[in-house]
Amino acid sequence: MKRPVKLSKADKELIAAATAAIRQRYRDDWQEVGAALRTRAGKIFTGVNLDAYLGRMAVCAEAVALGRAVVDLGDAGIETIVAVRHPPPYEKDQTIAVVSPCGACRELIFDYDPQARVIVPNGTSPGVVAIADLLPNKYSRGAEG
Ligand SMILES: [Zn+2]
Asked: Which of 15, 69, 71, 97 has the smallest number of CB atoms closer than 10 Å to its CB?
C-alpha cells in the first residue's frame, strides 16, 4: 500500500465534523463511531453507526453519512471520508480517534466513488489514502470489470 499523505486543512475539518457527530450522539453499546464525508461539490455530511440487538442489522457510520448525502443530493460522489471511534467510558484513554473503514464500507465507498480519498490511522497522526489502495482485487460479479 502507498504511504498515506498528510492531512489538508479540509481533511482536519472533516475529522472535526465526525468527532462532533459522535461526541453529540454517543451511547455506550449503540453509537460509538462517527463519520463524515465531503461530496465532490464540497458539502459535508455526517453519520453515526446504528448498532442493533440483532447484530446483522447494525449499520456503519459511513453508510449513514452516505445515506444522508444521497437523500439530500442524489449521487454526489465522495471526495473524502473519515470515521472516528469514541471510546467507552471504562477505557482509560478517552481520545476520539480516526479508525479505518471496515471491509464492507470499503466496498461501499468504492461503489459510490472509485476516486474517493479516505483518512486512515497512520502512526501518531492520521493520513490520507485512495480507496483503491484499501481495496485491492475489489469484488466483481464477473465480466463487468
Ligand atoms: Zn463499516
From this structure: 71
pLDDT score recorded for residue 3: 86
62 is catalytic: yes
Task: Name the residue among 14, 134, 26, 10 with its Cα closest to residue 82.
Answer: 14
Q: Which residues surround ligand 1, an ion (CB under 5 A)?
A: 60, 102, 105
Distance 63 CA to ligand 1 centre (A): 7
How many whole angstroms from 84 Cα to the centroid of ligand 1? Answer: 11
CA angle, corner 32, sides to 39 and 26, nearest 5? 95
Q: What are the angstrom distances between the C-alpha of 137 and each of 22, 110, 130, 131, 134?
A: 32, 12, 14, 12, 10
At 43, which helix (H) or strand (E)? none
C-alpha–C-alpha distance, residues 91 and 138, integer Å = 35
What would the pLDDT profile of 23-69 be if each residue is shown by its tens digit? 999 999 999 999 999 999 999 999 999 999 998 999 999 999 999 99
